[in-house]
Write a structure and sequence with these properties.
Length: 873
């Protein structure tokens, strides 16, 4: 019988008894290692949890599934949940045999949770089981079996009705469907699609040998659908094949082979032209590309003299491989990583000579025989390896690969098996014979902009939604390369405000980096009278990472507008910049020759770099990872010579998306709302808009806009939907783009008369949990929450206010009708005279989108407003 692909460590124990463990850095290579922290050791207190196989963020918590096999003394897989402070067991805590919460979900044969994914309001977990895989669904309170509980031979029976489907080796979700790929070494792998109610077989239902839809995509040697990822409207699936791996693409209707169809020895041939690339083990979408990490080896014949001899040769010279296709690796070989742009494949790891750090086979170390995971976090692509001398983690910034973690994390971990982005950072689950571990990068925020000059007041607002004190280390960075530290504590369930002028002193251009021991949230409001006449304020949510690319959809250098780009370079070398402006008037205009010294920041005036009278978007490229923001100051004339003065600021977007949502928006008198749409692609794209309104203001309105390649377009929203409406909008396209929403106003709420403007980049998805660090309901400040529900049923949300004065207030609730939006006045909801952070959490119903506009007369002198899209923890 075919053996299961995987308990790698258990396979090693059975075959070898002992393993040479240790760690080693590449000899003679200077590597920049990140500051990783162990979040769990010893297999969650059970050394039989030898591997953390799968992790996923769900409802603002991290879930981790283990491998735990009876032949090593275990009782079945477990699932654990991390809330930012403590781990709680959600599978395995009940007596053996208890459905859902017993070890192995109540079945000891479920020895591994191999994959996890989130679709809608559910977390899904796929198992490895020699009698047929299972799929379980979690709603935050209880587990329900959706594959395995049905009658044998039916789609909900064990193994989707075929016991030879012994594992769910890949899972992906595109917002509409959940996809599950199986391990079936008898007949060929299968792929199943779930719409929330029923399963449909999309690979395997065709006749044997039928390309695409037959078992194994038509080739029984494709014994495992090992990896998958969604990009745009397409699903990609990578296989195990003893003649070299394959990759297939599904557009919702048809399958197309994009790897394996070419001639032997070519990049589109099996195994990227090399049959030793037997598995497309890991896959991820990064920017607009698909990345695939391989397993290098040749299939092992089991139960033969050759098999026994090769098993005996394993150890520090051979390598660890999974059960059903134990592999021996060619000397000097190492794993590879390939990139697919939709048309062509290019090798990004493996193309350089042996031993070349980063780009040589195995990232320069032949002991890295497999890429176990690829994951995107904070604008980097991360790759984790299996290596008997200590696993490695490498980060890719689009330009180069750098080793991120000490080999084995310095603790004899031989597998970096899975990775997931949660709490604003990257978590990695490992394999270790004495019990798996979980490691994480620091909780970090960056701000590029900041100024404490005359007539500028800068603040940092920090929110701590946890029941223990948070400690924050702040590093302020100045243009001359000097830095200044500060340590701040945030009380439990509370908010803290830092007055930056009082910390660093007057007349400082300043950026900052924050590192916390808990996953807090940070914003930076500023209030000002710019250039002696443009008074107002702005606000930005901190970036959780650096990047080599930053996008801005909005920009204007016409009369009355001054646009700036502020760049923070926290690296040890100078960063060279290229400004690619995408103008409505003249297409792309590139500006080179600019740089930012190490550990420093620079401000660039776009009016000088680009010239006057341009409506522009920007793609900023850097040779090193940096942080970029765009403050703008204005005397807005608009449609009727308004003379509304102020400023706004946004943190750049480090990547593009296919959809953006804006919860806030209004076309009432005194407000002028715009959408700026950036298309950095070479061809024209079509962007579809769905506008939704407040209660009683009409049905949703749809529209479509064309944006030429390399340009940006501007939409005046009152022309699109009419006046006197509170409006939210969702924008989508089949091509990646960027959208911002600038608004200018004369705000007259509650008898005041404040003018200004604010701007935000849209949220890329609805969510069940939103957080705002900034908030103030004192005199001359009016704070609002805008909640949009794009779903088909009502949503019920809970509001948690964390105040500097009183800690956490009693929760409030609000209902948001389907396909509508609700505006909530925080001064009434929370109460007056509070400095506060806010969490909005969906209790029932679909995911929502939340923004927080604020209007003010700072110190009774500078009037304006700012707005922030919520942060998803």
């Amino acid at each position: 019988m075919a053996r299961s692909k995987g308990l790698r460590l258990l396979t090693i124990l059975c075959m070898l008894g002992t393993i040479l463990l240790g760690f080693s850095l590449l000899s003679g290579t200077a590597l920049a290692l990140d500051n990783w922290t162990a979040k769990n050791t010893g297999g969650f207190g059970n050394p039989h949890n030898l591997e953390v196989r799968a992790m996923a963020e769900y409802n603002s918590k991290l879930y981790a599934g283990t491998a735990n096999n009876t032949f090593s003394g275990g009782l079945g897989c477990e699932v654990w949940c991390f809330d930012g402070i403590t781990w709680t067991q959600v599978v395995g805590q009940s007596p053996p045999g208890t459905p859902g919460t017993g070890p192995g979900f109540g079945d000891v044969n479920n020895f591994s949770v191999y994959r996890m994914a989130v679709l809608g309001s559910y977390l899904y977990a796929g198992t490895e089981n020699q009698f047929g895989c299972q799929v379980w669904r979690f709603d935050g309170a209880s587990w329900a079996e959706i594959v395995g509980q049905g009658a044998a031979g039916t789609p909900t029976g064990p193994g989707f009705g075929k016991t030879a489907n012994i594992a769910v080796h890949s899972m992906a979700a595109d917002g509409t469907y959940l996809y599950a790929g199986t391990n079936n070494f008898g007949d060929g792998c299968e792929v199943w699609r779930f719409d929330g109610a029923s399963w449909a077989e999309i690979v395997g239902q065709g006749a044997v040998g039928t390309p695409g839809t037959g078992p194994g995509f038509g080739d029984s040697n494709n014994g495992c659908a090992h990896s998958s990822a969604c990009l745009g409207a397409n699903l990609y699936v990578g296989t195990y094949n003893n003649g070299g791996c394959e990759v297939w693409r599904f557009d919702g209707t048809n399958w197309t082979q994009v790897l394996g169809q070419g001639a032997a020895g070519t990049p589109t041939g099996n195994g990227f032209g090399d049959p030793l690339n037997i598995t497309a083990w890991a896959m991820a979408a990064f920017d607009t590309n698909i990345y695939v990490g391989t397993e290098r080896g040749k299939p092992q014949l089991e139960g033969t003299a050759q098999n026994a001899a090769e098993h005996a040769s394993l150890g520090s010279g051979g390598q660890l491989m999974s059960g059903e296709h134990v592999a021996v690796f060619a000397p000097g070989d190492g794993c590879q990583v390939w990139r697919f742009d939709g048309t062509n494949w290019s090798e990004v790891v493996g193309q350089s000579p042996d031993g070349t750090p980063g780009t040589g086979p195995g990232f320069g170390d032949p002991g890295n025989e497999v890429v176990l995971f690829l994951a995107v976090s904070n604008n980097f692509l991360y790759a984790g390896t299996g290596n008997s001398s200590g696993c490695q983690v490498w980060s890719y910034d689009r330009n180069s690969w750098i080793q991120s973690a000490q080999s084995g994390f310095g603790a004899n971990n031989i597998e970096a098996f899975c990775g997931a982005h949660a709490f604003g950072t990257l978590f990695i689950g490992t394999g270790k014979i004495s019990g798996s571990e979980v490691w994480a990068l620091p909780y970090t925020f960056y701000f590029a902009e900041g100024y404490t000059g005359s007539n500028f007041r800068e603040y940092l607002c920090l929110g701590n939604p946890f029941s223990i004190t948070a400690n924050v280390n702040i590093t302020y960075l100045f243009p001359d390369g000097t830095t200044q530290p500060q340590t701040v504590t945030i009380a439990p369930d509370s908010h803290t405000t830092v007055f930056v002028n009082g910390v660093v002193g007057p007349d400082k251009e300043v950026s900052c980096k924050l590192e916390a021991d808990l996953p807090i949230m940070a914003e930076r409001p500023m209030y000002f009278n710019y250039d002696g006449g443009l008074d107002g304020g702005d606000d930005a949510v901190g970036s959780t990472g650096t990047s080599t690319i930053w996008y801005f959809a909005e920009g204007y250098t016409g009369p009355g507008f001054e646009e700036w780009i502020c760049v923070l370079n926290p690296q040890d070398q100078a960063a060279d910049l290229t400004f690619n402006f995408q103008t409505e008037e003249d297409g792309v205009k590139a500006v080179t020759g600019q740089s930012v010294p190490a550990h420093s920041r620079r401000s660039f005036k776009v009016n000088d770099l680009l010239g006057s009278n341009f409506q522009t978007s920007l793609r900023l490229d850097s040779n090193l990872p940096v942080v970029a923001e765009r403050p703008m100051y204005f005397n807005y004339q608009g449609t009727s010579s308004w003379n509304w003065t102020g400023g706004h600021c946004v943190m750049g977007a480090a990547s593009l998306a296919y959809q953006y949502s804006f919860a806030e928006g209004t076309t009432r008198p005194g407000f002028e709302e715009w959408l700026t749409l950036q298309n950095p692609n070479s061809d024209a794209i079509s962007i579809n808009a769905v506008y939704r309104f407040g209660s009683g203001q009409g049905d949703p309105v749809t529209a479509s806009y064309t944006v030429e390649g390399g340009k940006r377009s501007t939409i005046y929203v009152p022309q699109a939907v009419g006046t006197d409406k509170d409006v939210s909008v969702t924008l989508s396209s089949s091509s990646p783009f960027l959208a911002e929403r600038p608004m200018y106003f004369l705000y007259t709420g509650f008898g005041v008369n404040w003018n200004g403007g604010h701007c935000v980049i849209g949220a890329t998805a609805a969510a069940t949990n939103w957080f705002f660090a900034e908030g103030y309901t004192g005199a001359n400040f009016q704070e609002w929450l805008c909640l949009e529900n794009p779903g088909d049923t009502k949503a019920v949300a809970e509001l948690d206010y964390y105040t500097q004065e009183h800690g956490a207030l009693d929760p409030r609730q609000v209902e948001v009708p389907a396909k509508s939006r609700v505006t909530l006045y925080v001064n009434d909801s929370a109460g007056p005279n509070l400095q506060l952070s806010t969490r909005v959490r969906v209790l029932s119903g679909p995911s929502i989108v939340v923004e927080r506009p604020m209007y003010f007369n700072y110190d009774g002198v500078w009037s304006g407003g700012h707005d922030a899209a919520g942060y998803v923890p």
